[in-house]
Specification:
The complex is a heterodimer of chains A (about 575) and B (about 110). Chain A has about 575 residues and is of the alpha+beta class. Helices cover about 40% and strands about 20% of the residues of chain A. In chain B, about 35% of the residues are buried. The chains are: A alpha+beta (about 575), B mainly alpha (about 110).
């Protein structure tokens, strides 16, 4: 250690210097306060022994200045004094001194004090080094999180969480507490919503969210059913996440036309379905294991269906709501949550009421910050803003003139749903993507007609009564099982005039016997629209530029033009 | 000369042990530091400069205390206190006493390093 001795008394300095060098320290001497400051700056001593009364600048003033220069560095200053009254000694410490030593010197006490300050100085240096390391690490981590968050936002950005029928609360860095909230409009109309809660926090929790969001948005946009999406997500998470990591989730298929929700819940707290102007509260319980736990063959995609009228609301949350803690460590709990719903708050204000209730309960306690909450309201789809299928100015790499022939044999017909594949091809054309819902309906309807009425030879008239409906599906299953011959041929073409207009044409031919389409079309006048059956032809008519049956009726040609002007009525 | 009435002899022995062969140097430094202090004290008293009196006495007290010349340090302390209270009564006898005591102390110290 290098020790600075500042004393104007030559004999005192001499004595002290001798004692200290004998203890193995290096000594620097100063004979007044000014000199002491210069020595401190030049020599950077580890400990300073300073006389209180000195000419030029007294010890207290010098100590203040040295402490100011030292800043965060610890420079112990021990005052040397023959003053013995309590106030004088206290003044020394007040001036920034760390200790004092009274004259005449006792070399044993002096040694003990120096040793103590050496220990303190070492400890302080270690502390400072560790603090700097921690600060640097933290800085680094925050930077990484911001970058990762930006990447995640780009992946998740295609969603429609801002739709008018959705209210949600999600912490700004939610992806790092493992909570995920995704929502996407389906090309066929309706909406998929995904509330996920990964085990753990931080990067391990966030890392699974990326592929999951990709799958969710990608497959939803291509028209895959929610079951298929769930199966895919489960498979993906199962294969990439380490054992013990999984994702609790509440997943919703919201249908605005059927006015219902299909739900899949795995490992999440109960969700609430509020209906009848807020008077009916139904609790929906999780029946599945979280995503990423079971292998594909054990994974169960069974969903529960609940009807929802206009203005009915579905509330979902991560366990952060129920497990929010107050200052005493009590949990918010389901009872308090239910109580909020029983206060007869107007349904429009419930979301805020839940938020507020949790906030008041938690109070000043530090938030765990993983409380995710979402409310879905049933509305008429037309009330939602146009889904963001913006026609971007794309490069000329989009396919504009193409044609495809696709034929399905018996096994494919039995086990394979060709819709996502076909829609995927169609959706590559930006203008068609904007009409996705409409196209999906047309293609889906025509293919199902070809299969059920053509290949399977089922009579659509069966579906005219509710009982017939059941018969229809029983018979359908039987015929699918027994199917040993048949085909569906699909031909799709698209042509475009310089990217400003275009014609999409789909021709579907089946192995069936056809039907008397002239009679059928005359029967299906618009007033029959709400009938159960009728091959959905009126609906398709309304969506297409033209719809034409050919030959015996086992071949149909539908044309859709864009931009849409004269839609056939 | 009787050391015990002018020094804390135990402390003096310990001081000698600590300083080893530099003990004579310490004595020399003390003496060359202290010799000018007596005329300085007298001078300060003559012009009734209390703050100088106080500083000189304080410094002298510290130095003599460290050499375990405790009676000398006590006399210095008395001047220091009076000067602090700007009370010049009885200072002259104290200066005379310090002068006498210092001569003895100096003699004893010098005898130690012969």
């Amino acid at each position: 250690m290098k020790i600075l001795i500042a004393d104007d008394n030559a004999s005192d300095r001499f004595l002290l210097s001798k004692i200290i060098s004998k203890q193995g320290h290096e000594v620097v001497e100063a004979e007044n306060g000014k000199h002491a400051i210069d020595c401190y700056v030049k020599e950077a001593p580890d400990i300073i022994l300073m006389d209180v009364l000195m000419p030029e600048l007294n010890g207290k003033e010098a100590a203040k200045e040295i402490k100011r220069i030292a800043g965060e560095d610890l420079v112990p200053i021990i005052f040397l004094t023959s003053l013995v009254d309590a106030q004088s000694l206290a003044d020394c410490l007040e001036a920034g001194g760390d200790d004092f030593l009274t004259k005449p010197y006792n070399h044993i006490i002096l040694k003990a004090k120096i040793d103590a300050f050496v220990r303190m100085r070492n400890m302080h240096a270690t502390l400072q080094k560790q603090r700097d390391t921690i600060a640097a690490n933290n800085q680094h981590m925050l930077h990484e999180q911001r970058v990762a968050k930006a990447v995640f936002d780009n992946v998740a950005h295609s969603g429609c969480l801002d739709a008018t029928n959705i209210k949600y609360m999600l912490s700004p860095l939610a992806v790092f507490n493992g909570d995920v909230l995704l929502a996407a409009r389906k090309p066929s109309g309706g909406m998929h919503v995904f509330l996920g809660d990964f085990t753990g926090h931080g990067l391990p929790a966030a890392i699974g969210a990326m592929p999951m969001a990709e799958i969710f948005y990608g497959m939803t946009a291509k028209g895959f059913a929610l079951r298929d999406i769930l199966r895919e997500i489960n498979l993906k998470l199962k294969s990439i996440l380490p054992v013990g990591f999984f994702c609790c989730a509440a997943v919703v298929d919201l249908s605005f036309t059927k006015r219902s929700v299909s739900m899949w819940m795995g490992g999440v707290p109960d969700c609430y379905l509020l209906s009848q102007q807020g008077t009916q509260l139904k609790t929906l319980r999780s029946h599945h294991l979280p995503l990423g736990v079971l292998s594909s063959d054990q994974f169960d995609v069974e969903m529960t269906e609940h009807s929802m009228d206009f203005e009915d609301r579905l509330f979902m949350w991560s366990d952060g709501i129920v497990e929010a803690r107050d200052s005493a460590g009590n949990m918010f709990g389901e009872e308090r949550l239910q109580a909020v719903f029983k206060q007869n708050t107007h349904p429009d204000l419930l979301f805020e009421a839940v938020k507020e209730s949790v906030n008041i309960f938690v109070g000043e306690t530090e938030r765990d910050d993983d409380t995710t909450l979402i409310e879905l309201k049933m509305v008429d789809e037309s009330e939602l803003e146009q889904s963001e299928l913006v026609l971007e100015q794309r490069m000329t790499t989009d396919p504009s003139d193409w044609k495809i022939d696709y034929e399905l044999g018996v096994d494919s017909l039995k086990y394979f749903n060709p819709l996502p594949l076909l829609m995927h091809i169609v959706m590559e054309v930006p203008a068609l993507r904007a009409m996705g819902g409409q196209l999906f309906t047309v293609v889906a309807e025509l293919i199902s007609n070809a299969f059920e009425h053509g290949v399977l030879k089922l009579d659509s008239a069966l579906k005219s009564t509710p009982a017939g409906f059941v018969d229809f599906y029983t018979l359908r299953e039987k015929r699918v099982n027994e199917l040993n011959s048949g085909f569906i041929k699909i031909n799709m073409t698209h042509s475009s005039a310089e990217g400003r207009s275009g014609i999409f044409c789909i021709t579907i031919e089946d192995s069936g016997e056809g039907f008397d389409y002239a009679k059928k079309t005359s029967e299906n006048k618009p007033q029959d629209e709400n009938k159960f059956s009728g091959r959905g032809i009126p609906l398709i008519y309304s969506l297409c530029h033209s719809l034409e049956y050919i030959g015996c009726g086992n071949k149909v040609v539908a044309e859709i033009h864009w931009p849409q002007k004269n839609v056939a009525k | 000369m009787d050391k015990t009435s002018h020094f804390d002899t135990e402390a003096l022995v310990m001081l000698e042990e600590i300083m080893e062969d530099e003990f004579p140097d310490l004595i020399q430094v003390f003496i060359s530091d202290s010799d000018p202090r007596l005329p300085a004290l007298q001078q300060a008293y003559d012009v009734q400069d209390c703050s100088s009196l106080r500083e000189l006495a304080h410094s002298f007290k510290g130095a003599s205390g460290n050499l375990s010349a405790l009676p000398l340090a006590d006399l210095c302390f008395k001047i220091e206190e009076k000067a602090r209270d700007t009370n010049l009564d009885g200072i002259q006898p104290l200066i005379t006493a310090i002068d006498t005591e210092y001569r003895v102390v100096k003699k004893i110290l010098l005898s130690l390093i012969k």
